């Protein structure tokens, strides 16, 4: 018996899936326990020089209606037509693996239900953290845990920019330009720089860990475009690296609180050493204490590795893996208000901060010319921190990762 | 239907399995897709005050002969009687999950074959890296990769000692004493300090990644007892942290080379920030480039979390997971000689090293009173490095992690 699969899209990730599959075909077949081959590659463009040119089709129905195709790798990106295609495939009982974080964050619940109803699988390991195995470990390896928090560096572009600001004292604009030159950032870098990409990924993690679909619009999201070099250097002197952190935790009121914000990560925290385009996710559970997963969050072969790992799983499993799933959410009342977000806080101000802040004590103060930067001892809510920020005319304020 | 399992041993790990299971029973049953309960706890001691005292038995046959028990967590440690018990359980078709690295390193191939022959599973996620999911990611999530190298900090005791030497300038003997006081090191610390514990773990990883059983006796193993404070500080000045690294790679001659040695880890390498009792494993593959798994390598609940994660998997799978397996090795001809181990090297010597070393150039030199410490630019084999070490009367020499 030979398992046949199809690849939707022959862009960066899709061509990576084809390349990696044929490179490691023998060992992949050993791990899958069956012969495997790619039967179709869907793309509207022509690839006359491809060694696999006979496999190309422009017609999605060729794949949909071929009973021999039991698994599909979706590497097109965007919500449509990916959503329509995947839903149709799942309804035919074909398992789908995707790297499409936008789609999973917007429509994951619907596609997971469709997969369950048709006894097949909708897998999306590649949608968070690229090459990093995080989805499967979260619901399988850590299944014995009550996971109460995850915190991650989930966007490589912003981490590259922040690393340049930290290591080379390069201003934000210049670092962004370099990221664009190196192909790490898009011409329109909004989705990365303003945190929307990280937001989609924390939505997926939140949905999986807490069991209900979290939509991007429910998540407070702040990017890195306002971070100044003086914040990066003051934070460093105070003992922290500034990172764009996507976090979700269960609060004491039982609600969950996902956020994307620049945060100060203590130098002692392993995550402060995650540099350049690398991503990492820290997971906190009552059994494990904390565990971190680290690796390349994007790129052709890293993402292809995750998609293909899922295809191999899909070939091995002929029933739905029900632990990798979540329910639709009727509303977002299970999500806490960001006003309740609690942390110690970093403030930078040009006025003398000590009087009138209402802060009983501060952790450490760095004075730089006419400016002060300090981190509070006290844990304050976002609402309280905003209030203080106004009182002292703060030029910047960020939470400290706990 | 309710799945019943048994726990062998009620020491630190075994009691942790019982505690964590009842703490998270509801969510565990959701993830397993079935009701679950512990039917037996095997221990020769009495636990009259345990809330689960009715489940205790001193008779292994109670478990072996109870058809209702389909999965077993082995938390006794040591090769015997664990091996005899587990083999008998697997022959009855009961899946077994273990944290027993000594057993897996010595007898893993036999038990994996027994499991396969009886269509059940022998799982051992907890045997390497405690709470860290590493075994399942290696053979499932990274299944599309040709993994050519892994390098890990696999022993928490030695990492704690090296962290104290690095952070607090504490001599080895004093740091070891502190580790013993804190319960991180045994009264007889040989297995940890001389690298035997890390060796067992790299045997398990090597066997899984490369498919043939690697025995501890085939692995060159050097511990940390000879590391001096001056090496730690010179390495730091040169840009490195000294860590006990357990590594395996496939050499160009097709053989694999597992070793356990103190190595210099560059400060830029994320693994240099793995401190205290934490463990980490870096995995290198042709798709992923590199990915790291980090967390607590030992302890009651972290280890219990991994054992219990495997029990949940065993309950979900009623067939052998054949990708998590390896073959017996007839001999160790597939293992390369340590003489061929290649790296850049750190040397410390009291003589002027520049003449007569045969080294064309050195990377950087730190001069401390009458001693010199330097790292070579050139990659040298272990055989060459030993030769140079003799020529210059080196007081210490260690490889640099690549």
Features:
homodimer; 402 residues; alpha/beta; Rossmann fold; Dihydrodipicolinate Reductase, domain 2; Alpha-Beta Plaits; 3 domains; six-stranded parallel sheet; six-stranded mixed sheet; 13 helices; 18 strands; 34% helix; 26% strand; globular
List the helices and strands and how they pair.
Two copies of one chain form a homodimer.
Chain A: E1 2-8, H1 12-23, H2 25-32, E2 35-42, E3 56-57, H3 60-64, E4 69-74, H4 82-91, E5 95-98, H5 101-117, E6 122-123, H6 135-141, E7 147-153, H7 156-168, H8 172-181, H9 190-193, H10 196-210, E8 220-221, H11 229-238, E9 240-250, E10 256-266, E11 278-285, E12 289-296, H12 300-316, E13 342-343, E14 345-349, E15 362-368, E16 371-376, E17 380-381, H13 382-391, E18 394-399
Helix pairs in contact in A: 1-12, 2-12, 4-5, 5-10, 7-8
For the sheet with most strands of chain A, the description reads: 6 strands, parallel
Uncertain stretches of 5 or more adjacent residues of chain A: none
Q: Give the number of DSSP strands of chain A.
A: 18
The biggest chain-chain interface is: A-B, 57 and 57 residues
Fraction of helical residues of chain A: 25-40%
CATH-assigned homologous superfamily of the largest domain in chain A: Dihydrodipicolinate Reductase, domain 2
Regarding quaternary structure, how should these chains be classified? homodimer
Number of helices of chain A: 13
């Amino acid at each position: 018996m030979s398992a046949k699969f199809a690849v939707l899209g022959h862009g960066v990730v899709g061509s990576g899936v084809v390349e990696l599959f044929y490179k490691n075909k023998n060992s992949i077949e050993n791990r899958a326990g069956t012969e495997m081959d790619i039967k179709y590659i869907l793309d509207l463009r022509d690839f006359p020089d491809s060694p696999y040119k006979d496999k190309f089709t422009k017609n999605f129905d060729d794949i949909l209606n071929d009973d021999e195709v039991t698994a599909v790798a979706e590497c097109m990106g965007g919500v449509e037509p990916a959503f329509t295609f995947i839903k149709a495939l799942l309804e035919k009982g074909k398992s789908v693996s995707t790297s499409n974080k936008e789609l999973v964050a917007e429509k994951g619940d619907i596609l997971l239900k469709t997969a369950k109803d048709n006894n097949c699988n909708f897998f999306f390991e590649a949608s968070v953290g690229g090459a990093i195995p995080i989805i499967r470990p979260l619901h399988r390896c850590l299944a014995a845990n009550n996971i109460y928090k995850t915190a991650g560096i989930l966007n490589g572009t912003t981490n590259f920019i922040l690393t340049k600001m930290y290591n080379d004292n390069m201003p934000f604009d210049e670092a962004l330009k370099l990221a664009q030159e190196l192909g790490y950032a898009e011409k329109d870098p909004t989705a990365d720089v303003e945190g929307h990409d990280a937001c989609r990924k924390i939505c997926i993690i939140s949905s999986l860990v807490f069991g209900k679909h979290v939509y991007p619009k429910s998540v407070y999201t702040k990017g890195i475009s306002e971070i100044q070099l003086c914040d990066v250097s003051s934070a460093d002197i105070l003992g922290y690296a500034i990172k764009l952190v996507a976090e979700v935790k269960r609060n004491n009121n039982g609600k969950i609180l996902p956020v994307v914000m620049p945060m100060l990560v203590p130098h002692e925290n392993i995550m402060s050493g995650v540099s350049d385009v690398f991503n990492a996710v820290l997971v906190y559970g009552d059994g494990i204490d904390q565990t971190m997963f680290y690796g390349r969050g994007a790129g052709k072969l890293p993402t292809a590795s995750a998609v293909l790992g899922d295809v191999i799983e899909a070939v091995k499993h002929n029933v739905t893996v029900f632990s990798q799933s979540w329910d639709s959410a009727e509303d977002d009342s299970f999500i806490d208000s960001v006003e309740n977000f609690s942390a110690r806080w970093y403030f930078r101000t040009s006025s003398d901060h000590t009087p009138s802040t209402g802060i009983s004590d501060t952790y450490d103060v760095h004075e730089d010319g006419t400016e002060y930067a300090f981190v509070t001892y006290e844990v304050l809510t976002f609402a309280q921190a905003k209030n203080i920020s106004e009182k002292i005319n703060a030029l910047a304020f960020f939470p400290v990762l706990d």
